[in-house]
Amino acid sequence: MNAVVQSIGRLFSSGQFPATCEPDNAPQRYGKPTPDFVLCRDEPGNAMAVYGEAVWDFNPYRLSATKINKVKFDTVFDEDGPEQQALIEEVKYVLYCLIYFARGGRLGKLSVSTLGRYWLVLRMAMKFCLEQKQKPLVGTLSLQQLFTVPVYLAAFIREKTFDQKALSAILQGLVRVGEERLGYAVVNPKNFDLKKRDSNQHPVIPTRIYLSIINLTGDLLDQIHKGVGRFDNFIACFADEHYGVAYSNQRTRGLGGKAHWRPNMAQALKDHGLASVFSGEFACSHKINLKRVLLNMQYVARTVIHLYTGMRDQEVLRMSYNCLSDQVVRQVVIDDQGVERDKPQAVNILSTTTKFTGYKKEGAWFAPGEVVKAVEVAQAICRGLARLYQIDLDDRCPLFPSPAIVSFTRSSAEVDLANFGNKSLSGSALRALPIQGADLQELAQSDPLRDFYNDPDFAVGQPWSLTSHQLRRSLAFYGSSSGFVSLPALRTQYKHMTIEMSRYYANHYENLRTVFGYYDENKKDFVLPSNHFAFEYQMAIPMSVANQLIADLLLSEEPLFGGTGSYMEKQKERVKAGEIQIEDVRADTERRVKSGAISYRPTLLGGCTKAGRCDSFLLGDYTECLSCEGAIIKPEKLKAAIEGASNELDSYAEDSGEYQVVKSEIERLVAFKARLIDSMDV
Questions:
Q1: Burial degree of 378 (CB within 10 A; 0-12, 13-18, 19+)
Q2: Which residues, 6+ apart, have CB-to-CB distance to 151 below 8 Å?
């Protein structure tokens, strides 16, 4: 199993432990590390987490857009003595073992956000151990005693409040680390009443509430969009700390006579032509309310993006200011009279997806017109905030910076992301849609195995607790229910590894025969209007995949190998010779993508056009691509894989199982290269 984990670590390299955190000195992996052992480096190579130091910063390895807290060993205790230092040394080694040897997560690695959760529990455990010093019959405990004596662990669970699911994961991880490496055998976590992880799917938003969200976001977005051309200059004025302040407060600030007073909020909005925009849901009578109102505007824009693209929460937060790109998916259609008849376009939102790749990989999402408007609103607000933060509008500038800076002035302020979990958004209209009895009935139909009726979070009269992932699942659910969005299209838009996963998102859709259209009395059924965005999905997703495949493969100068790679290479030669037109190849590729016959995703060795499940891909056995009919092998990627595996081989003892597995993989890669690529060069 360890060999499989190592293979996965190579397939999905960087972004998580342990692949990114390759130890500076490999032999130390089999013993306690020295104080200068580096666990984390930033992009330029600076050490951010060194084993012997008091603070570990793993932010360079985080996958989320929001920053994580540093691990600070020197702030756990009020005093510094031998007992405290012994606990610190213990917890450092426990964290080290969890990082490199626990093999957690889907990919056999530990994310830094999960490590942060573990640290909070271990920090509490350290304090508990020292507190036992007040009990003469017990004395200061060690972590080893806490994790090996059931009575001590039971007392910790009973007396302290912490994330019990994280404690269970820690104990399971230490079991996987093993007694030989850890130095002791931990207790079985199953013997304790620790809370288990909630395995329920995110609920589908009931039809009535879902339609209300669509209509409400549309109306609010239209209102905000009227101010797109004026937001930046208005927000930039708040670099002056007195701007927008009530006249009564300016009088006491010693600004001089009225000639030196700045406009109050009402006058400022009037001066910039924004009075109608900042009304109703976005009313702002005082400067103190401005950051909340701007955050609410950003929240509407963010909700629209989730609503129509199905992007994940962190994928939206990682979007940069320059995130829109226009892509022509068909050439202009002109009739005999020279009149332009058709010019469809697919607009993509560019962001990053890390759910399964394990690193910040660029991805593209098809976006209907509403999403373009939402991005334009977010960009307009961002332009104004960027002037306050004094940052450039480039790919490093986030699309959703925090608007909190309008309430204070400081030069070179650190750019934080907007906090959409802020309690100030609790009054938003999107979070005030009440649940009705019919909604509860629909919920029960959408997931028959779940008891919504006895769940207080879904009680009739309660406001619907809206989350971004509900929007993601509801789009899949209702899209599948309508029959207008196929599973291959859904998989492409959602960046799923398998069609089965997309099917899971649309789970039980056949139980609820309602779609977000209008009810036709004559047909006795729900009907989608002709301009519905589901039709755009139908057309744009296959086009997008086909264009990506052709651009990456057919138009590339690099020779291709493998099952599909060899076929594409022959097609390239036929196109160059004029035997076939690239438009014909595009149409055939698009038709096969739409039917689900082929797919396309980048791989470690090149690409894959296989549709459906791939067990070798899931297990990290990337050398199986060499003999797969759907594989595309690129020489440069093959050479990089050989080099990476050869470097990894040096970190293993020759008599270890890992060494033998990696060696056999290198031999297989080298043999493929010698037989096909090197022979062609000769």
A1: buried
A2: none
pLDDT tens for residues 66-83?
A: 788 899 999 999 888 999
pLDDT score of 250:
86
Q: Over 50: is that where the pLDDT of 346 sits?
A: no
Tell me how far apart the alpha carbons of residues 677 and 634 are, in angstroms, rounded to a whole number.
10
Tell how strand 518-520 and strand 340-342 pair up.
unpaired
| Overall size of the chain counted in residues | 682
Q: How far apart are the first and last CA of the chain?
A: 40
Q: For residue 72, what are the β-bridge partners?
A: 55
Q: What is the dihedral of CA 28, 34, 35, 40, to 10 degrees?
A: 0
Ranges of each domain in the chain: 2-191, 217-332+340-424, 536-681
Distance CA(23)–CA(80), nearest Å, equals 29
DSSP string spanning 276-331? TTSSGGG---SGGGHHHHHHHHHHHHHHHHHHHH---HHHHHT-BSS-EEEEE-SP
Q: What are the angstrom distances between the C-alpha of 26 and each of 8, 30, 31, 38, 48?
A: 19, 8, 10, 11, 19
- Indicate the pTM of the whole model: 0.57
**Residue 651 CB contacts under 8 Å (≥ 6 apart), including other chains:** 22, 23, 26, 29
d(CA 293, CA 456): 30
Which two tokens mark 349? 């939102």
3-state DSSP of 86-107: HHHHHHHHHHHHHHHHCCCCCC
Average pLDDT of the chain to the nearest whole number = 76
- φ, ψ for residue 401 (rounded to 5)? -70, 155
Q: How far apart, in whole angstroms, are the C-alpha atoms of residue 141 and residue 132?
A: 7
The most confident of 94-108, 385-399, 484-498, 499-513, by mean pLDDT: 385-399
Cβ proximity of 275 and 285 under 8 Å: no
Three-state secondary-structure class, residue 393: coil
Dihedral, CA atoms, 460, 461, 467, 471, nearest 10 degrees?
70
CA 187 distance to own-chain centroid: 34
Collapsing DSSP to helix, strand or coil, 19 comes out as: coil
Place of tokens 């991005």: 375
Query: What is the predicted pLDDT for the residue at 491?
Result: 45
The residue with tokens 């509490």 is 124
What Å distances lie between residue 374 and 183, 292, 492, CA to CA?
55, 18, 22
Angle, vertex CA 255, rays to CA 254 and CA 257, nearest 5: 105
Q: State pLDDT tens for residues 272-324.
A: 999 999 999 999 999 999 999 999 999 999 998 888 877 888 888 888 888 87
- Helical (H) or strand (E) element with 232: helix 231-236
Which one-letter DSSP state was computed for residue 675?
A: I
